[in-house]
Write a structure and sequence with these properties.
- By secondary structure, the chain is of the alpha+beta class.
- It has a two-stranded parallel ribbon with strand order 1-2.
- Strand 1, helix 1 and strand 2 form a beta-alpha-beta unit.
- The longest helix is centred in the middle third of the chain and has 15 residues.
- The N and C termini lie far apart (27 Å).
C-alpha cells in the first residue's frame, strides 16, 4: 500500500529538529505497517 508523509511546523515555537523528528516517526510507522511511503517535507 502507498502512503504520503507530510511534515510541517505548526507553530514558530517548535524546535529546528521538529520536521526531522516527524519524518523519522512516520518512516518507522510506514515500515512497521509495510507501507510504501512517499515524502513531502515542508519548512
Amino acid at each position: 500500500m502507498k502512503a504520503a508523509v507530510y511534515c510541517r511546523y505548526s507553530t514558530d515555537k517548535q524546535r529546528e529538529t521538529s520536521i526531522e523528528d516527524q519524518h523519522r516517526n512516520c518512516e518507522r510507522f510506514a515500515q512497521r505497517e509495510a507501507l510504501a511511503a512517499r515524502h513531502s517535507l515542508r519548512r
